[in-house]
C-alpha cells in the first residue's frame, strides 16, 4: 500500500485535506461550501457532543430548540448584529416550486413569495431573545440557562472542511441574568468549561483571553475566547463566550421586575463551539501517517488485529482475541476486533494508523505459544510485547498515558513556538516561522488593522493571564501596559 | 390554583394545545409554522433520541450528517419524489442582504442571487444517494447502514405543535444493499425497531402494516408504518419505513460490482420518526389534570416534595428527603427534590401532576415521627403510605408497574375502540364515535378516495397480521380478500 497522505512539511494544507478525506472524516458535498460528515468523523463529533453536553448540564444548563429560520426584520433589531451577519446569509424567499413549462423540471413558483423573507439562522440571539421576552417577567424567572445543538449557515466565500463551511454544526448557549455581575461570571464560567474540554478531552492546550473591539461578536460588549496553536504555528479560535450586556434585552424589550419591584433590562450571554473543533483536533495532533486521536475522543480506542495462516490458526487466534476484546470492553474501553479475512494485517495496521486508533493489539500464533501479545501505541509508534495476562492493566494505563502524552507534546510544541517580540522586524520574522508572538500594542484599531495588512497577523486575544508590563507598541512605539497575543490564524 | 387545562371531553383539541403549553413542552414561534421546543419538552425528546439511537446502533447503523440544502435539480431526479415534495418547500434564492436605501433596515441584495436555487431539505434521499454514488463501487461496500438526526422543513399550511410543523426534528435512516431481499428485510427490521420503541418506551400499542399505493412515500415501492390510537379514537402514524427498490439508485446512477463481477443497481431503504412522536406520547396517555409520562421517557421519574412549617421542621424533613433522593438516585432513577420555599406543597403537587412526573414522594413531620413516607402515582392517582425503609424497593417496583399499566390502559382503550364493520352505515357510525375500523376494500384508489371524501377516514394500513378473509368492499361491494384498517387520522 502506498503512502496515503503527503507530509506536513511538504504541504501542510494538502496534508490536512487529505487526512480529512482519507481517514473518512468528511468530504465536500454538491452544495457549495456544505460538507458531508462521514460516519467516522461524526462518531468523533458525537463523543465531543456527549462530553460537552454533560459539562453544560453539570453547570445547570438545559437544552431547548429554537427555529431554523429568523424573520429578516429580527436581524435588524440589534444594529451591530445585523451589520455582522447580513452580508453572508442564506435567504428563503419562496415556499413552493412548480413544474416548468416543458414539464421536465421544477421552477420557483412566483406566486409563492413570502411576505417577509426568512434568514437561515447564522446564530440565534434574535429569535431566542424574542422568546425570552415572553418567558421572563420577574427575578424569579432568572437566571435562564439554555443551550441548543443546531446547524447554522454563514455564506462564507472561501470554505474548508470543518474549519470554515457554509453550514456547520454547533451548540449555542444563551443565558439571561438579573445582574451584570452574574452575566459576566457566566461568560467566564463557560470559557473555563470550553478550556477544560479542549485541554482535557481534545488534549489541545489553549490561551484564554478577551478579543479586541474589532474582533468582538456582533452585538457583544466583550468576547472571551480560547486560542489553540496548530502544528504550522498558526492559531485557531476554538471557542467563544460573549458578554452581551443588555444589548439584546433592549433590542427585544426584555425587562424583569426586581425583588425590590423595579423594572430593569435583563443581562445576557451567549457562547458556542462548533464542528470547527474537529479541524483543531486534526491539525493539533496528527502526523505524516494520519490522524492521531486522544483516547477520550477516539470512537475506537483499541483495535485487535489477528495474525494467522489457515483456518486452524485463525480459529485458535480468534478465540483468544475475542477474550481480549471482552476483557478490555469490560474495563469500559471501546474495542474493535477486526477479523476480516479480505485484508492482510499490514493493510489493517496502516488503516488504523491513518484513522488514529490510539492502541493496536496484534495477536498471532507465536503469541499463542508464548502467552504474549503485542501492543503498539499510535502517538509514539512504540511497540512492546507483554504477557497476555497483563493486557487489561497495561492497556488501561496506556490509554491514560497516551492522553497525557498527546497533550504534553502539544504543550511543548506551543512553548517552543511562543515568543516575545520587541521590534517590528523580529515580530515579522517570528510570524514567518509560524509562532505565537506576545508583543506590545497601542490599543487602537488603526494599529491593529495596519499590522494585519502588513503581516497577516491578528491580535488573537488579550490573554487573561498577561501581566501588566510597560512597553512600546511594536508598530507605533506608543505606550502600552500589557502584551497581547499576535498570530496568523485559521 | 385554578384548573390549568380544559377537559378532554369538552374540547380534545384545546386540551391538547393547553397541555403542550402549560406543561412547558413547546410553543409557537414568530416564524409561521415553526415551533420552539422548550426545555421540558426537549428533555423528553432527548430521552427518545437516546433510546432510539442505541437501538439503531445495536442493529449495526452508524450516524452521519448530510447538508441542509438540496440543489433544486436534485429533487427532480426521481419523478415521484419531486411530485411529492416540490409543493411545500422552503426555497433559498439569495445569499446576502444589504442595507436598504433609508439605512434603517435590510433588504435582499439582488446581486446575490444563486445560480441554482437551494431547497431546505424536506427529506434527504436525493443528496444522500448522490454521495452513495461515490461511496459504493463493489459488493464489499455494502450494506451501507447510515442514519442522521436532523431538522427538516415541509411548508405545511395548517400546522399544530409537534403534530404538524413546518420545521421538525427527526432521524432519517438511509441504507443501501446488494439484494432486494436484504433491503426488504432491513425495511421490516426497522419497522420492528420502531414498534418496539413505541410500545416499550412510549407505552403506546401500535398496528404494523403497509400503506396503500396512494399513501406511499414519494419514491418508494412500499411504505411500512406503525399506527397508534389517540384517546379520541383517531389514528396517528408514528413511524414509517420505506422499501425504495432501485428507484434512487437509478436516479443517481448508483451501481455496484457483484461478487460475480456483474454491474447492478443498488437496493435502498429509508425510515424515519420525528418530533411528531411527542404528539403521540401526549395524546395517548395524558388526562384532564395534565401530562402522563411513561417512566422510561420521563425526565424526572420521582419528585420529592417536603412538607414542613418553620425552619426547624424544614431542616429535619430535608435531611431525610435528601437521603431518599440519594437512595433512589443510586438505583438509577432520575429524582428531583423540590425544596423551593417560594411555593406551597399543594401548588407543587398540581405542578408535577401537570408535568406528568410518574411518582411523587411527600415527606413531612408526621412521617418523620412514624418512619413513613407517602408515595403517589401519577397514572392512577393512587396514594399510599409506606415504611421509609421500604422506599427504594417500592418505588423501583412502582416504576415498572406504571410503565406496564400505562401501556395496558392504552391497549385496552384501543381494543374497546376497534371494530369490524360490514355495512357502510355501521362503518360511518363507528368512525363518528372515534374508532379503528377493520373493513373490506376493493383495492382501488378510486374507492379509497371516495371513502375519504365521504367519511374523512383513510386507510391507515393493510395490517401485517390481517388474516385472509373473503368479503365485500364496504363501499362498492366488490370482492376483497382481506380487511384493511380505516380511521380518521392526525
Notes on the protein architecture:
Two copies of one chain form a homodimer. By secondary structure, the first copy, chain A, is of the alpha+beta class. Chain A has three domains: 12-285, BirA Bifunctional Protein, domain 2 (2-Layer Sandwich), CATH 3.30.930.10; 300-397, Rossmann fold, CATH 3.40.50.800; 419-487, 2-Layer Sandwich (Translation Initiation Factor IF3), CATH 3.30.110.30. In chain A, 35% of the residues lie in helices and 29% in strands. The first copy, chain A, contains 14 helices and 26 strands. The first copy, chain A, has helices at 12-22, 39-58, 72-75, 79-85, 125-135, 180-200, 247-251, 276-285, 310-330, 345-354, 365-370, 391-416, 424-433, 445-455, and strands at 26-28, 35-37, 62-63, 69-71, 91-94, 97-99, 106-108, 113-120, 144-153, 167-177, 206-210, 222-229, 235-245, 255-257, 263-265, 267-274, 302-306, 335-337, 359-363, 372-377, 383-387, 418-420, 436-440, 458-463, 468-472, 479-487. In chain A, a hairpin with a 6-residue loop joins strand 6 (97-99) and strand 7. In chain A, helix 2 packs across helix 6. The longest helix of chain A is centred in the C-terminal third of the chain and has 26 residues, at 391-416. The mean pLDDT of chain A is 96. Chains A and B meet through strand 2, helix 2, strand 3, strand 4 and helix 3 of A and strand 2, helix 2, strand 3, strand 4 and helix 3 of B. Strand 5 of chain A pairs antiparallel with strand 5 (91-94) of chain B, so a sheet runs across the interface.
